[in-house]
Write a structure and sequence with these properties.
alpha/beta, TIM Barrel, 39% helix, hydrolase activity, ACMSD, carboxy-lyase activity, Amidohydrolase
Length: 262
């Protein structure tokens, strides 16, 4: 069993548009097409059995169609574990959480920077309470802005898990894209998972080693961030940069199994 905890796959009608937006924001040319048909063979070539697939509603009126797509994708492709999305501006969020749970959705993706709210926005407090232990939360963390100006940061994750200690939280991008210098101080050793996505191509070696060696190994999850990166390439780069044995890579590929009841 193996799991890529961080991938994306979009409806064919919007895939090209989303990829263009991602490239414009991150200045990273996507490796894949962003479709299920492209993702599945890449997982197979990497020797990965399952992938968590994420989407985030950037507007309240996108919540229902995004979740409908997620539920259909999971139903049609047993290898994929869809994460749902929620938005504090969507008035019926309680009913939507219930609907997601009834349909076997095990996680939620929150991308504060793209969704237009702070990770610690007060409107999210009742949503976090309602999420409780029902869902795993995948948080996008970090960006090119300094932490005090960013909607997400390692500092905000630390505040979140302090205020809501019952949540199961994955802090993406080794705990904070371009905020890695703060991860050891605020997140290492805390009750939070880190994934390896969208970091290996740019994170300084000293910070990579510091995070990897100070955070509990069982709380580090492999994530490729497909379609930006290819799962097989990311596994090889992870092993290369951290001098990992095959057994250590396998541990990272299986650490997420229990979270998603695989």
């Amino acid at each position: 069993m193996s799991l890529d905890i961080h991938t994306h796959a979009f409806h064919p009608k919007i895939a090209n548009k989303v990829l263009a937006q991602l490239e414009g924001h991150y200045r990273i040319h996507p490796t894949g097409t962003g479709t299920v048909e492209d993702l599945l063979p890449r997982l197979h070539k990497a020797g990965i059995n399952h992938a968590a697939v994420h989407s985030a509603a950037t507007k309240p009126d996108q919540v229902i169609p995004a979740n409908n797509w997620a539920m259909a994708m999971q139903k049609n492709h047993p290898q994929l574990i869809s994460f749902g999305t929620i938005h504090p501006g969507y008035a019926q969020w309680e009913k939507e959480l219930d609907r997601l749970e009834r349909n076997g959705i095990k996680g939620l993706k929150i991308h504060p920077d793209f969704q237009g709210f702070s990770m610690t926005d007060k409107r999210l407090a009742p949503i976090y309470e309602a999420i409780g232990t029902r869902f795993v939360i995948m948080l996008h963390v970090g960006d090119n802005k300094p932490p005090e100006e960013n909607a997400s940061s390692p500092q905000k994750v630390a505040e979140l898990i302090k205020n809501f200690p019952f949540l199961t939280v994955i802090a993406a991008h080794f705990g904070g894209y371009h905020h890695w210098e703060y991860v050891c101080e605020h997140l290492a050793g805390k009750n939070v998972y880190l994934d390896t996505s969208s970091s290996l191509f740019t994170i300084p070696q000293d910070l990579l080693e510091a995070i990897f060696n100070t955070h509990p190994r069982e709380r580090i999850l492999f994530g490729s961030d497909y379609p930006l990166f290819d799962p097989k390439d990311e596994i090889q780069l992870l092993a290369q940069r951290l001098h990992l044995k095959d057994s250590e890579i396998q541990d990272l590929l299986t650490n997420g199994e229990a979270l998603l009841d695989l």
